[in-house]
Each structure stands twice: as C-alpha cells, then as structure tokens.
Write a structure and sequence with these properties.
By secondary structure, this protein is α/β, with parallel strands linked by helices. The protein is 54% helix and 9% strand. It has 4 domains: 163 residues, no CATH class; 117 residues, no CATH class; 233 residues, Tandem AAA-ATPase domain (Rossmann fold); 170 residues, P-loop containing nucleotide triphosphate hydrolases (Rossmann fold, 3-Layer(aba) Sandwich), CATH 3.40.50.300. The protein contains 36 helices and 17 strands. A 7-stranded parallel β-sheet has the order 7-8-6-9-10-5-11, with helices on both faces. Strands 12-17-16-13-15-14 form a 6-stranded parallel β-sheet, sandwiched between helices.
C-alpha cells in the first residue's frame, strides 16, 4: 500500500521531496505530557538506532563492493602495464609476465567476482539506506531537543520531513523484507579466497570477464628458463664485440692506406708538383736544398722567402699541389697485406682481421633478431616472472603455436650462445702464421670490410642492367654461413638465387665452391622446418674437399654419398636433409635409391663440363636429377672445351626453354642469348691482390736418340709415344734436364713445385729425377682414392719449402686447392687449353701470396710445336664464346676441332714436316758430295 509519504514502488519518498502538514510536525515535536514524552523518546531512540545500524550496514556494503572493484581494476591495470610486445621469427605477440605474488591479484579478481549479484530491489535498498537515511537522520537530529526551540522554520520543517521519512522507511523495511535483501548482498565477512597464480592463465578464469584482451593466451612457463637473460646478454655482448672489431679493422685499414700513401709520396719526385698545377713552378732551389719528394714538402710546407725566388704565390701553389697529390695518393692507395712487408702496420691489420673473423663467425642478423625478439622475455625473467601469458597479435593465430615459436627461438639462442663461448676459447697466438696458412680468408675479410677497391662492372659479367638491379637488390641470408664473402662472390650467389637455374663460369681460383655454399646456406636459413635436401655432383677427387668446405663454412650437415659408407650416408641424408655429395660415377646407383617423391632444393654440378656429351650416361643421369631440383647451379671454369655445341648442351640442362640460335656462330650473339643464365668473371678483374703470373716456355731440342725414336713413333702413328719420349730417357732426356734445373732453382728460393703430366710414365720419370734434392709427394693419379688425394695435398701443404708434388693433370689439375705451390711445371702441351688453365689454377687462386711461375716443357723439333699452335686457336675460341670479351670473330667451328681430329691433323703435319726435313737433308748431303 502506498500513501502520500511513499513513491509508487512502495519505497519511502526522499526526505527533501515531502511536504508534511504543519500540525503533524507540532504533534511530533511538542508532546502533551512528560510521561508521553519519555516513552516517545525511548521508542524514537531505539528506532533511530535500528535504522542507523541498517544505514551503516548499507554504507559498509557499498564501500566494501567499491573497494573490491577498485582492487580488481587495479589488478587489471597492473597486468596491462606489464604487457610487452615480442617479435620472433615473423610471429608477433604480447607477453604478460606473472610473478608468484600475482596470486594476490588473482585473488582480488576472484573476490570481486564472488560478490553477490545486486538486483534492482537490493540496489534500491542499499541506495535508500546509504544515501537517503543518513540525511534524514541528520535532519531529525538537528530538529530534536533543546536546539529545536531556537531553530528557524525551515530547519523545523526539514526535521519534520526527516522524522516522517524515517518512520515510513522503518515501516517499509519491515513490510517489504528489504532488510533480508540487504543481508543477501552483504558478504563483508566472507574471507578473501586463496587463489593459485595459474588462475590468471585460465582462458575461462577471472580475466576472461574483466579483461578479455588479456585472456585467452597460452601460458608460457618460465621455470627452467632462468639462463635466458644471461644467454641474451652473451649474444648482445658478442654483437657489440663484432661491431667494435669491425671498427678496429676499418681503422687499421685506414692506417695502412695512410702508410701506403705516405710511402708513395715519399718516393714521388717534386716534379710531379708541376703536373698537379700545370704551372712552371720554381723548384730548383728546393731540390738544391735537399727537398726532392712530395712527401718532404708535405712534412715541411714551404713558406715565402724560405728558398730563393719562392715568394708567397709560389709557396702557396707548391703547398696546394702537394696537398692535391696527397689526396690523390690516399684515394689510390690500396690496403694490402704484403708477405714481404711484415711491419707493424701489416701486423696490426692482420690481428684486427683475425679478431673480427672470430667475432663475426658467431654473430649475424639472426643473433641480432634473437636479442631484439627475446629481450622483453629476458627482462621479465630477470624481474622474477615465473609464467608469461602469450597473447598473439592476431586473434586468429594459435597461441600455442606462438608459444612454441618463442620456445624454439630461446633454444636457438642457447645453441648460438654455446657457439659464442666455444669460439671465444679458440684463440690464435700467432695471427701472422694464421694469415700465411689461410690468406684467402683474410683477403675475403678485407673485401667484406670495404677496404679493397670494388670490382665494379667486371663483377657483373655480361648481365643486363635490369637483372643486375634485381641481383644487387637481393637480400642474401648468411646466418648459416660462417665464411666471409667477397663482393663478387656475394653477387654470384644472389644471381644464382634470383635466376634459380644458372651456369657459373668464373675462372678457376675465384671461389665457385663458396659461392654455391652461400646459396645453400641462404635456402637452408630461409626455409622453415626441417633442412631441405641439397645435392652436389662432382668428380671423385674433390668429394672430400666439398664435405670439408661445407662443414667449415656452413652449419648445414654434409653427407658422403660415395665410397664404402655411401649407404649409411644416403639413409641419413634422406632422413635428415642437408648436403649430399656424390660423384658422376655414383649417379646411376643414387638415382635407383632416392625416392621419386624427394625433390631437391638445389643441385650443384661441379666441373659441369663433365656432362657436355648428351649421349653419355653420366650426362643423362645428371639431367634426370636436375629435373627434380627447384634450383640448379652448373659450375665450371672451363665450360667451353672443344665445341660451342657442348656449351649449348650445358645451357639446355638447366633452361631448355632458352632460345639459343643454333645456326649463328657469332660469339657476341651467343653470349647475349645465354646472358640470363650465365655469369663469368676473370681473376684479373676481381682479384686485385693476386700476385703476378709468369709464364715461361722452356724449349729444348731432342737428343739424337730421341729424334730417331720420334721419327719411328711418327711412322707408327703412335701419338702418345711422340708426346712422352722427351721425358723417358733418364737424366739424359732433353726435358728432364730442364725439369731438374727448374726444381733446383725453386728449392733454392724456398718455393714449392707442382709437376703435371698426362702420362704416368712421365710422372714416374719426374719423381726419379727430382727425388734427391728434397721431399717429393705423389704421384697423384686417377687411381689415387678420392680421400687420399686430399690427404696428399694436405701433407704437401704442411711440408717444408722446396717440396715437390707430382700429379696427373686430369686428376690433380681439377678441383683441388694447392696454393702452397708457386711453381708449376707442365711436362707436355695438353690437347685442350682449359686443361692447362685448370692445372695452373690449382696454385694461382685467391689467397696465393707469391707470384706464380708456370714453366711449359716443350720440344722444338717434336710434336709440341704443332700442339702449341692449335692450342692458341682453341684458346681464342674459348675467349670469344665463354669469357667476358668484347671481341668477336667469324665461325668458331671453323677453327675448332675435336681431340681425334686434332691428333689426326698433328700426325699428318708431322709426317709432312719430317718428310720435308729428310728431303732437305738429302739435298744438303748431295750438294756436299758434289762439292
């Protein structure tokens, strides 16, 4: 029931809104007797105490609920403030760290969510008791007792309204059960629950309602990851050390360049000052005073009046010209590590390079990414976090997958930190000795540090401008490559990756192996999941070298698919991925055992001219494997040996779709057609530090005995006997005498010697001829097992100066690095110029510190002269079609001949020559007799 003192819901109207009648106020405030007054005051006081207690309870409930909500809100704010973003391996996520004491935050959230639900009625009860009743009590108090006699009308009326409101409120509370509603929402005595920290990681837990942006993430337990901060710190320190070491290299290089410039200026005559100014400078007085070089002028600039007839203008021009020459000398100065100049400057540069190599071997872009990506997590662990909530940047991303990525990155960081520690322990006590053992590595470091002159256009071969731009814009991932790349090597690797199926025809000694390994490292480093399958096909002689180079310069595992353990290697390679290294002779066996569904990320064909014959089995087997490869690199320093058609076969292996005009023999057109897939650079264009190549033709005359034997061999059409006989007569042989002189001189100059021949009998004669003067290794022949070949080369490299290695040119002249030798002897001309070039390149290659002497042993009156003439024509053909050359000639086939045709032609020419010589001799004898 409602009345004038209640609102429509039955609740009492607010005290300030009621207007009770005046007599009502008088009746309540002025009792009719003392007894009535006493009883009324007692009843009124008890009622007031009761409603005051209810009001205090309601206020307590409100404050309690407000406090719990504030604590829950504060918990959410605290968690949000800790939120940190991580970016690891293309995965972005937020991490919210949780420390053990955050169980209190969880309890605050749970306690707030435990509060009883306040419906509309309960809310009204609490509002009336906590807001309206305290005001009514205060109005009533101020209108009661002695003070009421002196109160004004407005205060008495307010007191009356308050008194009436309290009466109505008491009646309303008893009538509607409002007290029970108040009690139902009053849980102030409920204790704070004990909530585990893990409640915050529950996707349906307390965070789900109050902070959905923090819920739903995957929990990442940080227990067991206590080492991560130290791991990240070690990687960060290693990165800093690498940067400092690189700066030291640059500074050492600058100092070396300054020293080289000063050296040049100290030897530059002062006459060059006239060239710099174009003036007729008066320099006689300077020369008379002993100032003869530009360096001397720079150290002590000329001042007016110092020398006769040298005034202010002349002095200014002299000093200005000297400074201009100084600037030019600095610009032209090249940073070199000279074997003959072991001065402080060179030692400082070598030491800085070695320290940089050690530092950079274990850090790269991957390490920097790990440091940047894992540092937020590392900081959380340092601050005591035991769990982290992983919240993906994209809601569609699986939080569990993100968590696994973060864990994998942390494990990767741990492994790389181990490498840092291991490499830090691997110190070298003698940097100069290390340089002498591995000069190529130091030259590559110089190039990478930007201390050598760039190769420029020569490093780009014949590629078009658009393709060059694409290659130079390619980002090469070297995180799994430990070797330094020279600029031209980086370009070749990028070219192979951009074009995917290419022929790398760089000259021997430029590092085609490391270029191919760089492509493998890139693909392995940018392919998620298991390591892809790579296949290297090479001659048996270099299998060991390929495995060794792969293990030395990459962290991609290499397997031998050749020799007695090939079955085990095949099984491991098939299961694990990595680099399989096999030979041309093993290809058929390999094809039969590799699953058909297995594709290769890349196939590398080393010495690709081995598969120039389209009818040969090894060519067909190689071609079948190339069809299963996503990428392919054919490598050969001599892609053109006999006929241009053979070069076309190589191109067809990788790009049968490429249009190559079969009828036109123009070298320029041919190179233009193959340019998209062919890259070739020459040593002199990109290896500015390469020592001089000295080629000497050692012509000898056949002895009388050899001349008779030679004529018999020609008459018998015995081409091979014709080539060998000048070496097979012992010490009296015409070529053996030259060989002994060459080796003796090399030994006197502490040089090592390589002796090459096509024939084993010649090699045996060579060993016997030079055995007395020092260590002789070999002969290294086609029968020498592949692994033993590398061992033999290693023993030769470790031997004292003066050692000789004797090798069959087809076995030792391909693929092996024998730069310990600086003297090369070729006992007879070969049928292909490329065979000789390959052999010479075993010694004269990147990292060679000494000038290389090549001695060709030639018989003036034997077959050698005819072969030399034909080799010259073949060399011209190669240069025009396969090399980077701007010259062109008519038909290459017009001067090109096969081996069999060459032999037949030589035999015909030699028969004719000997017949002519014999006829001439007869005429001379007749004339002599007539006389």
């Amino acid at each position: 029931m409602t009345g004038s003192g209640s609102d429509r819901s039955g609740r009492p109207a607010r005290a300030a809104d009621r207007r009770p009648a005046p007599d009502t106020v008088g009746a309540r405030r002025i009792p009719s007797s003392t007894t009535d007054t006493s009883e009324h005051v007692m009843a009124d006081k008890a009622a007031r105490n009761r409603i005051d207690a209810l009001s205090q309870a309601a206020i307590g409930v409100t404050e309690h609920r407000t406090a719990l909500k504030a604590a829950a809100d504060a918990a959410v704010v605290a968690l949000r403030q800790r939120r940190a973003s991580v970016h690891v391996d293309d995965v972005r996520a937020d991490l919210v760290p949780l420390v053990p004491s955050d169980a209190d935050l969880a309890a605050d959230l749970v306690r707030q969510q435990m509060l009883p639900r306040v419906d509309a009625e309960a809310s009204s009860v609490v509002r009336v008791l906590s807001d309206d009743v305290p005001q009514a009590l205060e109005d009533a108090r101020r209108g009661t007792g002695f003070t009421a006699l002196f109160s004004g009308r407005e205060r008495r009326e307010a007191a009356a309204r308050g008194d009436a409101f309290l009466d109505q409120t008491l009646e309303w509370l008893d009538r509607t059960g409002a007290v029970q509603r108040l009690q139902s929402v009053d849980d102030r005595l409920v204790p704070r629950p004990a909530v585990p920290l893990e409640a915050l990681t529950d996707p349906r837990g307390p965070l789900a309602t109050v902070a959905p942006d923090l819920s739903g993430g995957a929990p990442l337990a940080l227990d067991g990851m206590e080492e991560l901060p130290a791991i990240v710190t070690r990687l960060a320190d290693a990165i800093t050390r690498e940067r400092i070491a690189h700066a030291d290299v640059v500074e050492a290089g600058r100092a070396d360049r300054e020293a080289a410039a000063r050296y040049e200026l100290d030897r530059m005559d002062i006459d060059r000052l006239r060239d710099a100014t174009g003036d007729r400078l008066r320099l006689g007085a300077l020369r008379d005073a002993g100032v003869t070089t530009v360096g001397a002028v720079l150290r002590n600039p000329v001042f007016p009046g110092q020398f006769a007839r040298v005034g202010e203008a002349t002095a200014s021009r002299i000093n200005g010209a000297a400074r201009a020459l100084e600037a030019a000398a600095r610009e032209d100065a090249v940073v070199r590590i000279d074997l003959a100049r072991r001065d402080d400057q060179s030692l400082a540069l070598v030491r800085a390079l070695l320290e940089w190599e050690v530092a950079k071997a274990v850090v790269g872009p991957r390490e920097q990414d790990l440091v940047d990506g894992l540092r937020p997590l590392s900081t959380m662990i340092e601050r005591g976090a035991s769990i982290a909530l992983v919240i993906p940047d994209q809601r569609a991303t699986d939080p569990t997958a993100v968590r696994q990525t973060i864990l994998a990155a942390a494990e990767d960081a741990w492994l790389r930190a181990q490498r840092v520690d291991e490499r830090a322990r691997a110190t070298t006590t003698d940097p100069w000795r290390d340089f002498l053992q591995r000069p190529a590595a130091f030259f590559a470091l110089l190039d990478e540090a930007g201390l050598t002159k760039p190769a420029g256009a020569a490093a780009r071969g014949d590629l078009g401008d658009e393709l060059i731009a694409r290659v130079e814009g390619f980002s090469l991932d070297t995180s799994r490559l430990s070797a330094s790349l020279r600029g031209y090597q980086r370009f070749a690797a990028a070219f192979a990756l951009v074009q995917q199926r290419v022929v790398i025809g760089d000259e021997m000694g430029l590092g085609k192996t490391i270029e191919a390994l760089a492509t493998i490292a890139h693909v392995a480093g940018t392919t998620p999941g298991r390591t892809p399958h790579f296949l290297v096909v090479c001659p048996a002689a270099v299998v060991a070298n390929w495995v060794r180079e792969a293990e030395r310069h990459t962290d991609v595992r290499a397997f031998r698919l050749h020799g007695p353990a090939r079955l085990l290697g095949l099984r491991l390679w098939t299961d694990e991925g990595g680099i399989g290294v096999t030979t041309y002779e093993t290809l058929e066996w390999l094809r039969a055992r590799v699953p058909e569904e297995l594709r290769f990320a890349s196939v590398i064909v080393d010495e690709a001219h081995y598969v120039k014959n389209p009818e040969a089995k090894r060519t067909m087997n190689t071609r079948a494997l190339l069809r299963r490869a996503d990428r392919a690199i054919l490598m050969s320093g001599t892609p053109l040996e006999n006929r241009v058609d053979e070069f076309r076969v190589l191109i067809d292996h990788i790009r049968p779709d490429l249009v190559v005009d079969q009828s036109d023999d123009s070298p320029m057109l041919f190179r233009k057609q193959i340019a998209p897939v062919y890259l070739r650079r020459r040593q002199e264009d990109v290896l500015t530090e390469l020592p001089e190549l000295v080629e000497v033709e050692e012509w000898t005359d056949l002895t009388d005995t050899e001349a008779v034997q030679y004529a018999d061999a020609v008459a018998a059409d015995d081409f091979h006997a014709m080539r060998q006989l000048a070496m097979l007569g012992g010490r009296q042989s015409s070529k053996v005498e030259s060989l002994v002189e060459i080796v003796d001189e090399a030994r006197a100059n502490d040089r090592k010697v390589l002796v090459f021949s096509y024939y084993r009998s010649v090699l045996a004669a060579a060993v016997q001829a030079v055995a007395d003067g020092g260590a002789v290794f070999g002969p290294l022949t086609g029968s020498t097992p592949a692994a033993a070949r590398q061992d033999l080369v290693d023993e030769f490299a470790a031997a004292e100066p003066g050692a000789v290695l004797v090798a069959q040119i087809e076995a030792g002249g391909v693929g092996l690095n024998i730069q310990a030798a600086s003297v090369v002897v070729i006992c007879e001309p070969q049928l292909k110029p490329t065979t000789e070039w390959q052999a010479i390149a075993r010694s004269r290659r990147m990292g060679q510190l000494q000038s290389v002497q090549v001695h060709r042993l030639l018989s003036e009156d034997g077959v050698d002269a005819a072969l030399v003439r034909m080799l010259a024509r073949k060399a011209q053909t190669f240069e025009e079609f396969a090399a980077v050359s701007e010259t062109a000639s008519a038909s290459a086939q017009a001067v090109d001949v096969s081996d069999s045709k060459l032999i037949a032609q030589v035999l015909r020419e030699e028969r004719e020559r000997l017949a002519t010589t014999e006829s001439s001799s007869d005429r001379v004898d007749e004339n002599a007799g007539a006389a």
